[in-house]
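Hi L., both proteins are below.
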Amino acid sequence: GEPRKFDPKFRGPIHNRHCTDIICCVIFIVVILGYIALGVVAWVHGDPRKVIYPTDSYGQFCGQKDTLNENKAILFYFNILKCASPVVLINLQCPTTQLCVSKCPDRFATYIDVQASYRYKPDQWNYFRQFCKPGFNSPRKSVAQVLRDEDCPSMIIPSRPFLKRCFPDFSTKNGVLTVANQTTFKDGRGKTRNVTDLREAANGINNVLDARSVGMKIFEDYAISWYWILIGLFIAMVVSLLFLVLLRFTAGVLFWIFIFGVIGIIGYGIWHCYWEYDHLKGIPGSDLTVYDIGFQTDFRVYLQLRQTWLAFMVILCGVEVIIILMLIFLRNRIRIAIALLKEGSRAIGYIMSTLFYPIVTFILIAICISYWAVTAVFLATSGEPVYKVMANETLCKYANLTCDPETFNSTNVTRLCPGAQCTFAFYGGESLYHKYIFILQLANAFVFLWLVNFAIALGQCTLAGAFASYYWAYRKPADIPLWPLFSSFGRTIRYHTGSLAFGALILAIVQLIRVILEYLDHKLKGTQNSFTRFLLCCLKCCFWCLEKFLKFINRNAYIMIAIYGKNFCTSAKDAFYLLMRNVVRVAVLDKVTDFLLFLGKILVAGGVGVFAFFFFTQRIQVFAQDAPTLNYYWVPLLTVIIGSYLVAHGFFSVYAMCVDTLFLCFCEDLERNDGSTAKPYFMSASLHRILGKKELSPKKA
C-alpha cells in the first residue's frame, strides 16, 4: 500500500506485457465452449411449440396445423375447481382432464340437467357434448359412470380464453364477484357453490385479464407510433453528441447554464403545478382525494384533482431546495469537477472513436441476452411428455404414478381403480439430462451473468487503456500513440482476458446469489414468518451493498490493469490503496462528476421528453396533422424519455470512464513525480493549476 517510487522509464501504459490470470482465462474459454454445447443440447431436445400451444390430456398440441386439433386452439379444463392457481394451470399440472376445444363455454350447465332433458332438448345436449371427450355420445350411460370415467365435465361455466386456456368469465358488479351476472352455480354433483370458489381456483385471473386488455392497447399504440419514437431517439443521440462537442469548448459556462436551467425548469414546474392547483379551485369533484377514486387506467382522471397537483408541487419544491443547498455547499468542488471534465473532453476530442465504443458493448450484451433467452426456452421445453395415473378415487394406490397411455388399458390399474385414466401431466423425463434441467437452467443464468459482466469489463478496460495513453503522453497530442482505442482493445484481449474474466466471475457469483435470494423471497411470500422475512431482507441488502462495492473496485482495478498490465488481484489492491490515500478527492470529484453527468442525462431525456409530450398530445400546431391518435399518449412518451436517457447514458458512460481514468492517472502522477525537471508532471497545465497542490512534493489528500 506504499506510494510508488519514481520510475524514469515509465511512459504510460506499458507495452512489454505478459499474460495475466492464465488459469482463469483457460477456465473461461472452457466454460464458453461448455455453454455452446449446452445450447446445442437444449436445441436438439427442446421444442418451443410446448410454450406456444397448450397440451391436452392425450399429449397433443391444441391448434397445431395438420392435426385433429387444428381448429381447436383452446384448452378446456373439466373441473377447474381442482386447480389451485393459474400458475398450476400454466405449468399444465392440474389433476383434471384437459381437452382441446374450438371455443370456450358461454353458459352455465350441469351434466345431470342436460342428460335428464336430452330427449326434448337435443340442442342443449349437442352443445354440452362438444366439451366431452371426442366421440362420446352415450346419454344413457349412468351419470356416476360418466363422471367417474371423466367422459364429460360435471359442469360448464361461462368462460373466456386467456393464454389459450378457458378461464371463468369474472366481472365485479357493485363490489360483488360474479360470473355471467350470477354469484352462485351448481357444481354438477348436487351442490350449489359460490362464485368465489371459482375465483380461488383461478386466483388473480381478473387482474391479469384487465392487464391483457391494457396490454393490447399499448401494443396498438406502439404499432402506430414506432416511427416517431425512433425519430425521438435519433434527436436524443444528436443532442447528446452536440452536448459533448460543446462541452469540449465551454464546459464551465455550459454546466452553470445547465444547472440553472434545471433549477429554472423545476421552478416552472412548481409554478405550473400551483397554477393548475389554483385553477381547479371550486370545480366540482376536484377536492376528492386519490384514495377516493382508487386506481384508474386513464391517468387524466388524476389530473382533475387538486390533491395531485399539490403533491407534484411539494415534491418539486423538495427537489429544488436540495439542488440549491448542494450548489451552495459544493460550489468549489464543482469548479474542480469542471476542470477534470474539461481535461476529459479534451481527451475525448483527440480520441473521438471512444464515443462509439458503447455500441460494441451493447451488441455483445444483446448477443448474450438473445443466446440466454433462446437456451432458457429450449431447456424449459426439452422434456418428454410424462403421463400419470389420474384416479377420482383418492384411495387408489396407483394414483400419481407414471404410466404409458398405449399399454395402460391392459394393466391391473383399470381393474383395481375403476375410472382411473392415464393422462398427460407435464413435460419432464427420467433420464439424467431431464433430472438436471433445473441445474442446467441455473448454469445457463450463471454463465449469462458472467459473460455480460465480461463484456462490460472489456469496455471499461479498453477505454481506460485509450485514455491512459492520452494522459501519459508528455507532449499532447504529439506523443499520443496512433489508434489508441484499437491498440488498447488488442492489448486487453491478448493479455488480460483472464483478469477481466476473474473480475467478472466474482461479480457474477454475487449477482447469482442475489437472483436466488429474490427467487426464494418470491416463493416464500405469504408462508414465511417475520424472522425469515427479516433475515432475507438483511441478506438481500448485504449482497446489494457487496455488489456495488465490487463494481467500484473492479472498475478501478481494470484501469490499473490497462496502465500497468498486472494481474487482477494486484491491480485491485493497488487501486484500492491508491484511492484510500486520496479518499477525500475520490469522494468529492467522483460524486460531483457523477452528479453533473446525471444532470446531463436528465436534461437530454427531459428536453426530448417535453418535445415528445407536446407532439403526442397534438399541441404543436405545425405537427398537429402528423401526430398519431393514441389510446395512451404516455406509452410512446415514456418510451422516448427512457430511450433518450439510455442513449445519453451510453455516451456519458464513456465520459465517466474517462474522468475516472484521468483521476487515477492524476493520483499516480502526483505520487510518482514532483514537477521538477527530473520528475516532471504529465498532467496538463490547466489541470495542475486547479487540481494540483502548490507544493512540489506529493502529500496525502
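That was the first. Here is the second:
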Amino acid sequence: AIHELSCEAYKHLGKTSNSYWIDPDGSGALGPLRVYCNMTEDKVWTTVYHDLQMQTSVGGNSLEKLSVLQLNYNATMDQISAITSSAEYCEQFISYSCKMSRLLNTPEGNPYTWWVGKANEKHYYWGGSGPGIQKCACGIERNCTDPKYYCNCDADYKQWRKDSGMLSYKEHLPVSQIVVGDVDRPGSEAKISVGPVRCQGDRNYWNAASFITSSSYLHFSTFQGETSADISFYFKTSASDGVFLENLGNTDFIKLELKSPKEVSFSFDVGNGPVEIIVRSPNQLNDDQWHRVNAERNVKQASLQVDQLPMEVQKAPTEGHTRLELYSQLYVGAAGGQRGFLGCIRSLRMNGVTLDLEERAKVTPGVKPGCSGHCTSYGMYCANGGKCVEKYNGYSCDCSKTAYDGPFCIKDVGAFFEEGMWLRYNFHSPGTSMKDLVSRTLLSSADPEATEPNLNLNKEELSFSFSTTKSPCVLLYISSYTQDFMAVLVKPSGNLQIRYNLGGTREPYNIDVDHRNMANGQPHTVNITRNGRDVVLQLDHYPPTSYSLPTASDIQFNSPKALFLGKVIEIGKIDQDIFKYNTPGFTGCLSRVQFNQIAPLKAALRPINASSHVHIQGELVESNCGASPLTIPPMSAATDPWHLDSASADFPYNGQAIGDGVNRNSAIIGGVIAVVIFTILCTLVFLIRYMFRHKGTYHTNEAKGAESAESADAAIMNNDPNFTETIDESKKEWLI
C-alpha cells in the first residue's frame, strides 16, 4: 500500500484525526511508521508515543548513584528525525516532581539530572527553558520556590515540588533517556513524566514554486540515481503540455513531462535505448487542480503512477546496462531547448530528499516561490457551507457562517438543556439599525443582489437536530415585532409539529408529522425550507415532503425579532398551545441550530462578537448528545423503526447528561441488573417445568404455531402480533 508522506497529506485527502501510517522519506530506507494525526482547525499535529509511564517513580533508598530511564518509541530515531526536520515546530513535555531531590544544581554546579536527545547528546536544560541555559521554567520566569535557585527542586525541600514545561528546540528531540542523580539520600524521591513528541506542519509538503514563463526553470546538482530512482511531486497547471524535470548524461537521461492534457510520461535511457512509460488519464490533468506523480526505476522494473489511477509498470531487460549515468545539472520546470512547464510544482522528492524549490525560486527570474489556489483542489473538503480560505501553505475552512466547527466544518456544536433553561438570540442587537442587521444576518446568501433589504422574509432555511424524552415541549420559536411567528413543537403524543403564522388566516398553519414518536431519546434531524408559499420538510433520513401555505396566508415573515430555544419568554400575546407547551420547558439536547445565516447555539458557545445578541437563562453545557450520526445507511422502509435506533446507539457520547437527565452509566447498570434478574426467573421457570414433567398429565396454554417454531420466544412472536412492538418499545427505553 502507498502510505502518505505526512499527516499534512492525510488532511488534504479530507481525513479527520486518527492513527495513520506515514512514510517520511517515500520509498527510502526508513520505511513507514504509525503515528497519531490530530487535525485541528488551523494546524496538523503529528504525535509519536513512547512506553515510559507518566509519574514514573525513581529512588527512595536506591543504592545506585544514578538511575537511568530509557524511552522506547514506536518508531526509530531516524524516522522521528525525518518528522522533526521537516516540521515547522515540535515540542515534548517533561516534568520532574521531587522530594529532597535536586534537579540541575543551579545556579552553578554540575547538574544532578540530564536528558539525552537526538544523536545521543546530553542536555542540561529543562522544560520551559532553552539550549545553553542551565535553568528550569521558573528560573526563566523568576518565580522559583527559593529565589536563590533556578529550579523549584533545587531548593531541596522535604515537601513535593515540581519543575515542568515544554522542550521545543526540535533539533534536540526526541528525549530518549533521562539520567537522575540525586535520589540516593534517605528520604529522596522523584517522579518523572515525559509526553509524546508532537510536531506541527510539514515544510516539505508545501515547498512549491510557480513557473510563470515557459523559458524559466530551476537547476539543482546532478541527480544521483544510478541503480534506483524514486521521484514524487504534485503539479497544478492549465497548460496543455510541459516538461516537469530532466537530467542528461552522454546518452543516458531521465525525464518526466506532461505530454498532453491527459498524458504524463516517464522516460529514461540507461544505455539500452530509450524507454517510455505513459499514464493516460480519463480526465483532463490541466484543470488547475493538484495532481500527484510518482515515478520509480530500479534494476528490475520501472513504474509510473498519477493520482489514484492504475500504476503502469515496465520490466527491465534481463541483460544489458543497468546504471543510469548522468552528468548535467538537474533541470526542474524545463529541459534543454524544449517547451518549459507553466504552473506549480510542489513537494518534489528525489530518493527521499525534498528539493528546496522555494529557496531556489527566490533567486531565479521567471519563477516565484510558493503557490496560490489551493482551494480549487481542497475546497470540497469544507462541508456544511464552510468557506475555503487560501493560505500561503495550504488552506483552512472558515466555519463562522455555519452551525459547525472543526477543521472541515463537520463537528456539530450542540448543548444539553436542563428543564426550565432557555436561550434567546436577538436579531436586533443594541446599537444597530434593523436594516443593517437584516442585511447582514437574516437575508439568505441566496440573495446577494439584495441591496435595499426590507425587514420581511420571503424565504427561510432552518435546520437542527435534537433528542428528548419529554413531551410536549417547544424546540424552537421565532418571534416578530408583528403577530407573525414560526415554531417547531413536540406535541403531547411525541409527534412533531411545525407551526407557521404569517397573517391572513384566522388560525396558524400546522404541519403535523404523525408517523413516529420523536420523544424517544434518539437524535433526530429537522430541515425546513420555505420559499414563498412552498414549504419543504425533511425529517431524519426520510425523503423530503412538500407542503403549501393556504392561499389566504401572507407569504412574508414580517419583522423577525428573536429566536428562542427551549422555551418562549416573549412579551405580548402568545399562541395558546405554545403557552401550554412552554411549561415546564424543553429537556434534552439541541445541536447545529441554523436559521438562514445565523447559528444561535454556536454564537452562545463560541462567543466572538455576537454576545450582545445572545441571552441565556440557566447554565448552557456543551454536548454532542443531540447530534445525528453522520453516516446512517438508508432505511429499508419508511416505517422501519429498527434502523435508526440501532444506528444511533453507536453514536459517540461525550459523557454529559442526556434525555431527562438520567446518567448513562446508571442506565447501563440498571440494564445489567434487569438481565441478571430475567436470567434467574427463566432458570426457575425451566426448573419448575422440569419438576412437573414427571407428575402425570398437565394442561398447557402454549401458543398456536409452537410446534413449528424454533424456540419458545419464536412461538410467542408467532402468536402475539403486539410482541414486536413490545420489543421495540423496550429497546427504545434501553437506548435512552
